[in-house]
């Protein structure tokens, strides 16, 4: 458990004693694909760390339309915001594939922040990073055309979760086209038009298990 927790950036600076204490208050849980971990507007009570698999963080409009805010994979954490401010969840979380997560109750999480400044600082840096991402998303939706937004979303996912070999980046495809269109902030029909164009130019190669982006042909 300690070796696993050490890989989570928020806790990488803890010593063995601190990691051991943290491991004692964490619970390892396995979730099947499409499990809703929590829903928007409900009271938050748990902090999550991803050991394996992936989780999408998303919001839902009054008409039922989803907007994916981020994808969390191994070594990433989520669910701390409502624990810190005491307000309802600002988004929902759902597994994209079978996933193993570490969970920490809200009470234990807040006690951790009170006793370890390094972790508190890490949380502040993470929240600042998310705010910058949100600002960038607003800019993209306002000023970028659909094709650029799709390419930027694919490259962002590939750079964050993919494997690069020369000019080619490969990433396991855990998102379907509906979810990619949500991430890029465009309609699915527009996404498919952009996808077809990228495939025809061999910039993008999609298989049943992954997709590849050829950076050389993207220029």
Give the SSE order as H and E letters: HHEEEEEEHEEHHHEEHHEEH
Mean pLDDT: 86
Shape, principal axes of CA atoms: globular
Strand content: 25-35%
For the secondary structure, the number of strands is: 12
Which segments are poorly predicted (pLDDT under 50) over 5 or more consecutive residues? none
Biggest sheet layout: 4 strands, antiparallel
Pfam family, one: cNMP_binding
Protein name: Crp/Fnr family transcriptional regulator
Keywords: Activator
Organism: Paenibacillus alginolyticus
How does this model look, in words?
Keywords: Activator. This is Crp/Fnr family transcriptional regulator. By secondary structure, this protein is of the alpha+beta class. Helices cover 45% and strands 27% of the residues. Helix 4 (106-115) crosses helix 5 (117-143), helix 6 (146-161) crosses helix 7 (177-184) and helix 7 (177-184) packs across helix 8. The mean pLDDT is 86.
């Amino acid at each position: 458990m300690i070796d696993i927790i050490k890989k989570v950036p928020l806790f990488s600076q803890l010593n063995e004693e601190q990691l051991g204490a943290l491991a004692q208050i964490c619970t390892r849980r396995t979730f099947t694909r499409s499990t809703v971990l929590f829903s928007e507007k409900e009271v938050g009570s748990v902090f999550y760390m991803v050991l394996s698999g992936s989780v999408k963080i998303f919001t839902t409009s009054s008409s039922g339309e989803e907007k994916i805010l981020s994808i969390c994979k191994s070594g990433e954490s989520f669910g701390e915001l409502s624990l810190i401010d005491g307000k309802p969840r600002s988004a929902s979380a759902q597994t994209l594939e079978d996933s193993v997560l570490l969970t920490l109750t809200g009470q234990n999480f807040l006690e951790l922040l009170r006793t370890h400044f390094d972790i508190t600082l890490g949380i502040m840096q993470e929240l600042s990073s998310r705010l910058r991402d949100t600002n960038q998303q607003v800019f993209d939706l306002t000023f970028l055309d659909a094709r650029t937004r799709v390419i930027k979303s694919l490259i962002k996912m590939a750079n964050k979760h993919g494997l690069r070999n020369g000019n080619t980046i490969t990433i396991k495809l855990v998102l379907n086209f509906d979810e990619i269109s949500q991430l890029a902030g465009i309609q699915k029909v527009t996404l498919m038009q952009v996808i077809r164009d990228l495939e025809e130019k061999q910039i993008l190669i999609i298989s049943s298990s992954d997709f590849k982006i050829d950076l050389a042909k993207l220029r």
